[in-house]
Amino acid sequence: MALFTIQSPFASNPIKTKDDVRAYLVGLLDPLAPHTSPGGARVHLGYTGTHYDDIAAQLEGFSRPIWGLASLLAGGGEYAGTHRWVKGFESGTDPNGDEFWGYMRDKDQRMVECSAIGFALAVAKDRLWDPLSEQAKNNFAKWLASMNDKEMPNTNWLWFRVFANLGLTKVGHPLGSKERMKKDLDHLDTFYIGDGWSRDGPEGVVQLDYYSSSFAIQFAQLAYSKLAQDDDPERCEEFRNRARKFAFDFVHYFDEEGRGIPFGRSLTYRAAMSSFWGALAFADVELPAPLTWGAIKGLQLRNLRYWAKQPGAYYPDGTMTIGYCYPNHNMTENYNSPGSPYWFCKAFAVLALPESHPFWAAQEEPYPAALRNTVKFLEKPLHIASNLGGHTFLLSSGQQCSYPVKQSAAKYGKLAYSSAFGYSVPVGSLTLEELGGDNTLALSDDAGEVWKCRRETKEARVEWEGSGEGRKGKWLRSMWYPWKGVEIETWLVPPQPDTPLWHLRVHRIKSDRKLWSAEGGFAIYGQGKDGRALEPSTGENFGTLERGSEARAASRAGVSGIAELGNGGSSSRKGKAMRTDANTNLMVPRAVLPTLMDEHGPTGDKSIWFVTAVYGLPAIGDEEGAKPGWEHDWNKRPIVPGELLQLML
């Protein structure tokens, strides 16, 4: 029985040349025209709400595509609809006009949109600023500068004001404040913690997600280093040095097919997570080996190709959906408007480069061979990245959002995050199926009516063997306290060369009450070849397996499994291939989650131990299912480190 599938409107674009990338961008810009207001200043793409007002939301729909449009124009390209944005700048900043955006207040969402606008003025002045009348220019400058005396969040938002002033100074308007820009930059530099990484906030913040890279900070540093070189050369060189260091870590967040590892918030920005690679090229950074311009080109273009092929990322008219691989409001934040996904357009920064630039002149190269089949301990973000055996994922302990964010336990608190399988978010609050508890240890103290997952991690650190340059990473270790009187200590052990598709989790639990537990592996596409739910199967064919203390699921997406090893532990959990509620997972709307479940009495002065082995083997490219022979790898279980076994005695 053949399944009827709908292709993305961009699926036929090979995305290999600058013209191909330009065509992709134009294909995203053109559908916005029918949704644009008569004066051009507002783009209305839907009716869902945000914590800010509708005018600010419609400004998002106007401003965020400018990341791509300005880059296209800066690189000598043409776009027939450019007049819509020029007209919008005039009407949106006219305080007496019907489409006025409104002057900024303290911590106003409008501030966010000033980043793209300031960038556009800096790189495409002749196309977006010069055509305006003198009155329109003064209105525009007054509106943009209205943020200079306002309070801003103590986060990456400060970069938005930097770019507002950078844009105004680049067009020569006196309202652009170099003094304000310097103060903001000096403060942003206090977020830097070394090895190329910056926190998304002051000391005490442990948030090092895509905002620390492509969404905001690293991208902004690189763009600034190109545009402010003459005025601020020392800082610009420092930003380039940070980027060179950061690239060594960030490359591990991408797989050979171009997918980034979904982690953290704002994932509806999609390809913006790869825009760091284009920003490296925009800033003409001298690349550190083994990175070459061909490798950088591959990292950027493969990610764009991946998103071009995702039909669920677009509505039939070509506008973008809110979600990840398909429309999904369960995973969004309260600041995601229908225009928010167009932060995606930061990935088109490479269009600002001439054809002669090494990025375009180089032959595209595959993922660097020297970085394949590696495990990398990333000390600053408290991650361990692995691509052994063809599965790119990270182990995580220690990050959490410093302010309330929807589904923050899922976005920051899970034990593992995969480029192939994504992560899941809750769609309700009463059942495990609603929880979407992949890669987490879920606990209940009321027979399963309410489940808690790790959200706030304590005492997280990488533990090493040896010292100095010769030291070797062992695992991530951390604590979690879901209730008073309950403590969980967790060790996350990366894959080993002889069992490359398995990683280990060891949990020590001490509790003053009875608990119910459910630990999940990777959530995986849960349908068979006929499109119906997977059925039980004991062989390598598609299906699920529940056998004693193990569970697994095999489908066109590959294989996911979980097993209780025992090995000195005191648990006798049972395996279940759980069918999670629809639309929990970011990548597939119907998923199966291999899970280990049990109930446990109070521990008293002793502890109980869980020793968990988690298996993940993604399908490669367009292949249907995992490579033949995977059951041999499944049956070869990993060995628990002796040091951890000793702790269990």
From TrEMBL:
Stated name of the protein: Uncharacterized protein
Organism: Gloeophyllum trabeum (strain ATCC 11539 / FP-39264 / Madison 617)
Domain DUF2264: residue ranges: 17-367, 374-644
InterPro entries per UniProt: DUF2264_C (IPR049237), DUF2264_N (IPR049349), UCP014753 (IPR016624)
Pfam families documented for this protein: DUF2264 (PF10022), DUF2264_C (PF20938)
